[in-house]
Automatic annotation (TrEMBL):
Protein location: Secreted
PROSITE patterns, sorted: SUBTILASE, SUBTILASE_ASP, SUBTILASE_HIS, SUBTILASE_SER
One GO MF term attached to the UniProt entry: serine-type endopeptidase activity
Family: Belongs to the peptidase S8 family.
Cofactor: Ca(2+)
Keywords: Calcium, Hydrolase, Protease, Secreted, Serine protease, Signal
Protein name: Peptidase S8
A Pfam family recorded for this sequence: Peptidase_S8
GO biological process, one term: proteolysis
Residue intervals of the Peptidase S8/S53 domain: 154-481
Span of the signal peptide: 1-26
Gene Ontology cellular component annotations, sorted alphabetically: extracellular region
Active site location: D161, H196, S428
Length: 491
């Protein structure tokens, strides 16, 4: 077995994460492609003549979110198009249409000979045999699993992600396939062909060989990622609005990227003219509107903090760096922030790792920051030894039973547990721990009072009942502490 060199991996992760987050994959331009624009109107509802406005400017609408006042559009004459839009009284701002990525830390693939050697002693009961250190920590060894769970089926957690395996034996019965949706163009269902969404769902509410934080809660998929793991922001914006309209109680967003607080400028390749996209970057305005819409509808929105090992409380002016990596004519002026993690109202979650004698340490890849992190939760990383004991400190959860899961430590997980389970690590794995605790608390309050707490009440209660870690009181690594579902239901 080869050793894991964490410091080298951290450096590699730092570089690759920023490249994934900052690259405008959706708007990358070649000689044969037209750029994609995000257009935000002054009204938070699209004007009735929005398509006419775009067409008269020389563009074509490719996607729209009417309740956020946002469209995506393309044009063969981008400079003329931007000039015309920015002169229109109903248009607030224009920016490139950006993608989000399922950006997880990379962990070495286990030696396949070692994985094969494990098949002689397969694990039958994952939960009872102690393979879920993360859920044990958050639930006080399962003490919260059966507390006040009668109303959990009436609480819906919307997972905006890559979809679900609706037939997974540990999820079936608690997933709402009929109410799930896809926002990926040219797809017709919300089945998972990536594994990320199914893994997140298992951490929230699995009940079978493995356990989630809140068994019995209703899980609903809002698919925005395809198999390759890229999603246009406007699909995500649409999914947030839809989940809120569908009556979701919690939205889990184990995804992210970076966005500009400032101004975008576009240089017309035909004329060399530099055109302003408006004072408030359209991409971050769209996120703000969608999140605020959901919160106003009573939805608790939970987000991963990101996997770049960055202090996100101090948005350094990396505009020059960002501009140097762009090839599409766009130039950014201002500060870059992580989204949705740094959108107001979002419960932002950092990741902890197990092993090395403690489960209360920031995972090497996790973002952090004073005032930027609300809660910490287990996200996992490799433990102190090679082999199965190292993998055990990643987060084990459900993956699609119809996929041959070979990513990361997949071969080892398959050898130990059979098809349908896998290890992952990242703040993506930490966020659903908080979403599960939020859902359990909402269900308890609904059962006891007949009404559901609002997002601010949910966030405040989870923060007040978290396990203080690190510095006494609030700190930049774990926020108000490590989330604890048992405390949330008993205090």
């Amino acid at each position: 077995m080869k050793k894991i060199f964490l410091y080298g991996l951290m450096a590699l992760l730092f570089i690759s994460s920023f490249n994934l987050n900052m690259t405008n994959s959706a708007a990358e331009v070649t000689e044969n492609e037209s750029p994609l624009f995000m257009v935000v109107f002054n009204s938070e509802n699209l004007p009735k003549n929005a398509e006419d406005i775009v067409e008269s400017a020389g563009g074509e609408v490719t996607y729209q979110v009417p309740k956020a006042g946002v469209i995506e559009a393309t044009s063969d004459t981008p400079g003329k198009f931007m000039n015309a839009l920015m002169k229109h009284k109903d248009v607030q701002s224009v920016s490139p249409s950006l993608e989000e990525q399922l950006d997880l830390p990379e962990f070495d693939i286990v030696d396949r000979e070692f994985a094969t050697s494990l098949e002689a002693n397969p694990v039958e009961n994952i939960w009872e045999d102690g393979w879920q250190w993360d859920i044990e920590q958050v639930t006080n060894d399962g003490a919260s699993h059966d507390l006040d769970r009668e109303a959990r089926e009436d609480v819906v957690v919307a997972v905006i992600d890559s979809g679900f395996d609706f037939n997974h034996p540990d999820l079936a019965g608690h997933v709402d396939e009929e109410g799930s949706r896809t926002f990926v163009p040219d797809t017709t269902n919300s089945w998972d062909y990536n594994s990320h969404g199914t893994h997140v769902a298992g951490t929230i509410g699995a009940e079978g060989r493995m356990k989630g934080v809140a068994p019995g809660v209703t899980l609903r998929s809002y698919r925005v990622f395809g198999a390759s793991g890229g999603a246009s922001q406007i699909w995500i914006t649409d999914a947030i609005i839809a989940a809120a309209d569908d009556g979701a109680d919690v939205i889990n967003m184990s995804l992210g990227g970076t966005r500009l607080r400032g101004q975008w400028f576009y240089t017309d390749p035909a004329t060399g003219e530099r055109i302003s996209g408006g004072n408030s970057a359209a991409d971050i305005v769209a996120y703000n509107r969608a999140i605020r819409y959901a919160i106003d509808k009573g939805v608790t929105v939970v987000s991963s903090a990101g996997n770049s090992a960055q202090d996100i409380s101090n948005p350094s002016k990396v505009g020059d760096w960002q501009n140097s990596s762009r090839t599409d004519g766009w130039e950014a002026k201002g500060a870059v922030v992580f989204v949705p993690a740094q959108i107001p109202g979002v419960v932002t979650v950092s990741a902890t790792g197990g092993g090395f004698g403690t489960e209360d340490r920031l995972a090497f890849y996790s973002n952090y920051g004073n005032g930027a992190i609300n809660l910490g939760a287990p996200g996992g990383d490799l433990g102190p030894e090679d082999g199965e004991s190292a993998s055990k400190y990643l987060v084990l959860s459900t993956v699609p039973t119809y996929m041959d899961f070979t990513a990361g430590r997949g071969p080892e997980a398959k050898a130990l547990f059979g098809q349908g389970y896998g290890w992952k690590g990242g703040t993506s794995m930490a966020a659903p721990q908080v979403s599960g605790a939020a859902a359990a608390y909402i269900a308890q309050q609904y059962e006891e009072t007949g009404s559901k707490p609002n997002p601010r009440q949910v966030q405040t209660h989870l923060q007040q009942t978290a396990v203080d870690t690190g510095k006494t009181g609030y700190d930049e690594y774990y926020g108000h502490g490590i989330v604890n579902a048992y405390n949330a239901l008993t205090r």
